[in-house]
């Protein structure tokens, strides 16, 4: 990926002589600057103009939900923080864990988390079915001239992703609670060629094996079923039932609280790292629609 710094230098290479001459004229007699100061000022002003232009064009696509962090002072603002999300996934794993891995990010939104994984050396495939999020991601992919080898972006339903090849890690984050049938979603994930999965959902508090229609929390919705909030215990049972094992709850404390107390910047309170139980072979057969 070409860095912002690189783009600025490239621009400087192309046009600094004319612009320096212009600036020297502008500042002549008002403030003396040596050549280096002038170049730094020019660089900052090019960066600021580029950033403003970039963010303006991006906002024309629509508001971003997931923030995207290019560097400390250049980010797309959003309510979900990819640094918090990635911190959750990075827990307990060595820094080089993602290096060279092929990672599938399902429901990738504006791609903020995908970018964090790329910063750790992953080659990512992002699937997002809502057009505006897909376009936001394509916009920054093109802007930074990122090759398909490093980042593939698909505007598609995640239910086609078992055709995308083999992965080292699959992320199914912030999805389960939206579906009419959580187990069908988990059964489908199990059909993707991969051994390790990060899966997250919004949980309700309590120890019982209980699910509540999310309609209860959004009574004005015209939909009779809005997806499900389940307890941590029930979700673990569902994961096992769909053929996952070695289930690790990444943060036991927030998984115990209700979804109402999800920490700022996260989308969910139940985060799990699981492995596929390869002895279980035919879960998809239970759900004919996915065959
Ligand atoms: C709650 S957001 C979670 C975003 C991100 N994965 C995270 O955890 O922060 C759910 C995202 O999944 C996308 N999505 C929902 N259903 C999908 C589907 N069937 N296929 C692909 N993307 C889907 C939504 O458009 C949205 O961007």
Description of the structure:
It contains eight helices and eleven strands. It is α/β, with parallel strands linked by helices and about 290 residues long. The longest helix is centred in the first third of the chain and has 27 residues, at about 35-60. It has helices at about 5-25, 35-60, 80-90, 110-120, 130-145, 180-190, 230-240, 250-255; strands at about 70, 75, 100-105, 125-130, 150-155, 170, 195-200, 210-215, 230, 245-250, 270-275. The protein is about 35% helix and about 20% strand. The protein folds into two domains: about 5-60, no CATH class; about 80-290, Vaccinia Virus protein VP39 (Rossmann fold, 3-Layer(aba) Sandwich), CATH 3.40.50.150. The structure holds S-adenosylmethionine.
Please supply descriptive tags for the structure shown above.
18% strand; two-stranded antiparallel ribbon; Rossmann fold; alpha/beta; binds S-adenosylmethionine; 8 helices; 2 domains
């Amino acid at each position: 990926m070409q860095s912002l710094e690189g783009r600025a230098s490239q621009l400087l290479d192309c046009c600094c002589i004319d612009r320096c001459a212009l600036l020297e004229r502008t500042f002549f007699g008002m403030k003396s600057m040596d050549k280096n100061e002038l170049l730094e000022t020019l660089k900052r002003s090019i960066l600021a103009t580029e950033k403003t232009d970039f963010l303006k064009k991006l906002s024309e696509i629509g508001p971003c939900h997931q923030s995207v962090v290019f560097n400390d002072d250049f980010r797309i603002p959003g309510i979900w923080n990819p640094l918090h999300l990635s911190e959750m996934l990075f827990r307990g794993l060595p820094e080089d864990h993602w290096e060279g891995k092929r990672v599938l990010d399902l429901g990738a939104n504006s791609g903020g988390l995908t970018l964090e994984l790329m910063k750790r050396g992953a080659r990512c495939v992002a699937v997002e079915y809502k057009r505006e999020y897909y376009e936001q991601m394509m916009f920054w992919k093109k802007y930074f001239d990122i090759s398909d080898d490093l980042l593939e972006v698909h505007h598609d339903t995640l239910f086609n992703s078992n055709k995308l090849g083999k992965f080292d890690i699959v992320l199914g984050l912030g999805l389960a609670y939206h579906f009419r049938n959580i187990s069908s979603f988990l059964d489908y994930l199990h059909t993707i060629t991969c051994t390790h999965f990060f899966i997250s959902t919004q949980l309700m508090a309590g120890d019982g094996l209980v699910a509540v229609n999310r309609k209860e929390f959004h009574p004005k919705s015209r939909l009779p079923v809005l997806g499900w909030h389940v307890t941590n215990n029930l979700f673990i049972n569902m994961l096992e039932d769909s053929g996952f094992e070695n289930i690790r709850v990444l943060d036991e404390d927030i998984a115990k609280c209700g979804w109402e107390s999800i920490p700022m910047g996260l989308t969910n309170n139940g985060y799990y790292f699981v492995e596929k139980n390869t002895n279980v072979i035919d879960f998809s057969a239970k759900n004919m629609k996915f065959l």
